[in-house]
Amino acid sequence: MNVFIQGMRRSGTTILYDALCQDSRLETFYEPFAEGREGVLGGGSGVQPVDLFEKIRQLRQEFLAGWPDLDAGRLNYGAPTKPWLEFEPDLPDYGRAYLRLMLSKGAHVAIKFTRMYCKIGVLRDLDPGAALILIVRDPRAVTASYLFGKDKRTQSAYPDEAAFFGKRSSMNAWKVRDFSDHLLKRPDYAALGECEDFLRVLLVWKFTFLAAWQGARQHFPGRTYILRHEDLQESPAGTLRRVYDHAGLPFPGHLEPWLRSHVRSHTPPFAADSRRWPEAFRTLGMEESLELAGYAALMTRPNGIRGWLGRG
Questions:
Q1: How high does pLDDT run on average in the chain?
Q2: CA distance 123 to 66
Q3: How far apart are CA 294 and CA 56, in angstroms?
Q4: 135 touches 16 (CB < 8 A)
Q5: Average pLDDT for residues 30-35, to the nearest whole number?
Q6: Alpha-carbon distance 311 to 184, whole Å?
Q7: Are residues 195 and 279 in contact, defined by beta-carbon separation less than 8 angstroms?
Q8: pLDDT of residue 308
Q9: pLDDT tens-digit profile of 123-170?
Q10: What's the angle, vertex CA 131, arms to CA 128 and CA 137, rounded to 5?
Q11: How far apart are CA 242 and CA 94, in angstroms?
């Protein structure tokens, strides 16, 4: 059984990938269409102090041997070099062949993506029998993660709620400005103009989730599991058991102590009880996406997270 994992950047995709890497039955691949630069250790979570792209670079060498006229840089399909490619619904032939090579590497292959939200149909074409995992995270937490940066390096630029909700800047962490500029050209968002930084992140959250969800509904009916990052934090072993059940694989018991040691407990998002959050959700028309992702309570009870954590 193959497993495809898709989630927005800063939504907790890497910690799930880290956990799956502890299962020797699985052949795992990390962000096939990223740059794959050397020396980047641990990915988004930082849990595994290794270069997660090493395996990707090795496989690219094998793949390119059969595509001698293909520039290796074209395997970085999307951000950071060409973020607009992520909005395309298809991959070129070489991209599909590249993923097929990955899928040939084991009886159970798990591939983690953040760039395939518009290309769920491509994954279906590659393996219609695969299990699809869509990872989501509280949009307030994702927004704070973008604005504060990795290891909170840029938090000083948003020192209080006034700055967090009011600042407009050229901030482009994880190319969120490029993505949001693309979306703001659409007629339904044109009125937002040069909007606040936090709204830009929420706009990308809404689009990437709905694109992936709609693709999953069409191409993986009955084969999609929506995993909330907060559920993994609240009940690591129980949530991962559900992932394994969905994939039709027995859960390896040795993962339980690993999960207890490495999955961080949940902490409330920045300004969790501010009314600016539900106001922003209404401004962006996020009611449907929040409900589908399991966050409907945030429209009326911004800090009511305990009411829905752990729900199956």
A1: 93
A2: 22
A3: 33
A4: yes
A5: 96
A6: 34
A7: no
A8: 43
A9: 999 999 999 999 999 999 999 999 999 889 999 999 999 999 999 999
A10: 130
A11: 34
What are the residues whose beta carbons fall under 8 Å from the beta carbon of 157, sequence distance 6 or more? 147, 163, 167, 169, 171
Contacts of 73 (CB under 8 A, 6+ apart): 81
39, exposed or middle or buried, with CB in 10 Å at 0-12, 13-18, 19+? Answer: exposed
Q: How many CB atoms lie within 10 A of CB 312?
A: 7
Distance of CA 224 to the CA centre of its chain: 15
Q: What CA dihedral angle connects 166, 188, 291 and 205, to 10 degrees?
A: -50
Q: Which two tokens stand for residue 122?
A: 């491509």
Global model pTM greater than 0.85: yes
CA triplet 277, 279, 285: central angle to 5 degrees?
A: 100
